[in-house]
Amino acid sequence: MERSEQELVRRENLRRIREMGIEPFPAATFPVTHLATDILEQAEFDDENKATNFGEVTLAGRVMAVRVMGKAAFAGLQDSSGRIQIYVSRDDIAPGEDKALYNDLFKKYLDLGDFIGIKGFVFRTRTGEVSVHVQEFTFLGKALRPLPVVKTDEDGNTYDAFSDPEARYRMRYVDLTVNPQYKEIFRKRSRLITAMRSFLDDLGLMEVETPILQPIHGGAAARPFATHHNTLDVPMYLRIANELYLKRLIVAGFDGVYEFAKMFRNEGMDRTHNPEFTAVEFYVAYKDYNWMMDTCEALLEHAVKSVGENGSTRVTVGDNEIDFKGPYRRLTMADAIMEYTGEDINGADEAELRAICQRLHIHVDKTMGRGKLIDEIFGEKVEGHLIQPTFITDYPVEMSPLTKKHRSKEGLVERFELMVNGKEIANAYSELNDPIDQRERFEEQLKLADRGDDESMPMDEDFLRALEYGMPPTAGIGIGIDRLVMLLTGQKSIQEVLFFPQMKPEA
Fold this sequence. Notes:
CATH 2.40.50.140, BirA Bifunctional Protein, domain 2, eight-stranded mixed β-sheet
């Protein structure tokens, strides 16, 4: 591979460092005592500008800027928390006659992006910048490729930014190094998941794990990724959902289980869809979808507070301020369609629904059954209007093959979806626990598959066998983590909230 001039210079510097008897990729532990941000935020100084609340400090990180002034230099050291200025004096880090540690290693062979460790004391410069006066210097790792140099002037203007989305997503390791402000997105993601996990633990649920490789791709309407198990000589699928396995555990006698799980759906990629995504699903025995709506409100209010400013439940997304404090509006699917289209779908058969779609200029095809037609109407004409958290309830039975029939409304099921900012965030049911009804629903799905619907659910005989052993009344829900993080961090693209989104092969 042809290397750039800078890459060749760095390899020459690597060779020179080794000639000095210094290992450029040392294996020993380096004992870090402080982070840059801790010092910047907490330092207090006496009249001589020395920190009074910090003694000796040890930091490690990348060198992101160097300004040499003869026998001394200032540099920018960036660790996981942020960047701090360091002051390096030749006679401090090389106190004897041999000044090679400063004159050669620091001044000549140290490149931007290299990892170093320092030990010293905290002081404040004449210009008021909190800094670390280096007394010991250790080389910790050589960067053989140059980082993009992003410059910011005194007025806050940025030059040579590493901002191309494809480059950023493909080389996230570079992106988060030179654009450290994006790290906060992933810190919030982590805090959100921690808060949700804590809430579910306090609810008395048990965290479990279920198979990612499955012999039948059940639990949702989606196309799977297919593979082959060589030893068993059978086709296998990456899971599109973990629902059916979690319900098997309810059959097994657990009162409540949850899983933060990776799902895989062989579908399109856009600003709100990635083929690999994260969801949390939980199932609780002896509950229904009404209980789950209350619980969903409480869970999200708790979780959003964990990442909001000063514990706020309000987030700003574009021009909209969204409040996750309950209670949320509850609206049946038929009422929502009536409200935003003026069309009444109650009791409408497939032909009547096709006529409604034609009036509303919604494109449909012959593979779509009654449920898919209603879903198209809702998605095209209603979804985008639902900005504040809204529970859409009571779906047609054709749209929900795993859901218990409504206790009082013929042709409907006890299901809700939580819509926020025009997108689905959560999907929940009173779970279908009648194995005879469940078999009939699967058979209806097989008929849709015969019509060409490649997202219909297959028959799962083992799941039906589990239901025949008896499952108590159960409420279940799935919440999409990626879309929720998008909302809470104000991101318009799902790629911004994934460390490593799916990308086309690199040319």
